[in-house]
């Protein structure tokens, strides 16, 4: 069974590879801000973090499902994902600028927030989409309280925190600044492997059927 990853996230790709899966990566053409804004307009109220990540994960999976894989029809499972970080009830996506990343870190060091990761999985046979399932995983993240400004400036200068939800990583340079994870650690990377396994099973497929890398065969 082939897995198609509707994401260009290096972290998600590395995570899947470590679990024995070499996905086909396809970039979804989705304006995340526009999709979320329209959903909030229709709802008449701000979206919850749970709703945001599930909505955007679904939008990405459906975009790739529609656009396909060039001349080759998609035949397998299409996975979309999205993540946001929440602290004090405020939803934070990617900061994009050093100033915003620094502001967020000054607010979150020594504290605990929640990382929400949404998943949407579409079964597609010979280019024709069929059943779909989705789920959201949540993990608590606690940051060290003794991070000094020099360390923060050095971390931000690497550029790593600018393009990840919450301005931090658990699987790279940001890991030493995190003291505790409550929940599935892969959720914090942006893709909960246990959640994905349950979704795959829910569509009637076995998790080992996705293994296609040498170490898992």
TrEMBL record:
GO terms for cellular component: cytoplasm. It is found in: Cytoplasm. Its main location: cytoplasm. It holds the Pfam family Maf. Its EC number is 3.6.1.9. It catalyses: a ribonucleoside 5'-triphosphate + H2O = a ribonucleoside 5'-phosphate + diphosphate + H(+); a 2'-deoxyribonucleoside 5'-triphosphate + H2O = a 2'-deoxyribonucleoside 5'-phosphate + diphosphate + H(+). SUPFAM superfamilies: ITPase-like. The keyword DNA damage does not apply. One of its GO terms (molecular function) is nucleoside triphosphate diphosphatase activity. InterPro entries: ITPase-like_fam, Maf-like. The keyword Hydrolase applies. Belongs to the Maf family. This is Nucleoside triphosphate pyrophosphatase. It comes from Cryobacterium tagatosivorans.
């Amino acid at each position: 069974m082939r897995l198609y990853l509707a994401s260009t996230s290096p972290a998600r790709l590395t995570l899947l590879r470590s679990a024995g899966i070499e996905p086909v990566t396809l970039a979804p053409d989705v304006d995340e801000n526009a999709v979320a804004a329209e959903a909030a307009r229709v709802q008449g109220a701000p979206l919850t973090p749970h709703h945001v990540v599930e909505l955007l994960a679904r939008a990405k999976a459906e975009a790739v499902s529609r656009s396909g894989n060039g001349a080759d029809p998609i035949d397998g499972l299409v996975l979309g994902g999205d993540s946001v970080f929440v602290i004090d009830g405020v939803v934070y996506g990617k900061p994009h600028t050093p100033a915003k990343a620094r502001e967020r870190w000054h607010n979150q060091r020594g504290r605990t927030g929640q990382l929400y990761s949404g998943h949407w999985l579409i079964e597609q046979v010979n280019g024709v989409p069929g059943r779909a399932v989705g789920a959201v995983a949540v993990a608590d993240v606690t940051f060290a309280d003794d991070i000094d400004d020099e360390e923060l400036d050095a971390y931000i200068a690497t550029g790593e925190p600018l393009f990840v939800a919450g301005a931090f990583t658990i699987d790279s340079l940001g890991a030493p600044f995190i003291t505790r994870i409550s929940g599935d650690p892969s959720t914090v990377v942006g893709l909960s492997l246990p959640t994905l396994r349950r979704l795959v099973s829910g569509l009637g497929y076995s998790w080992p059927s996705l293994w296609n890398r040498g170490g898992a065969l």
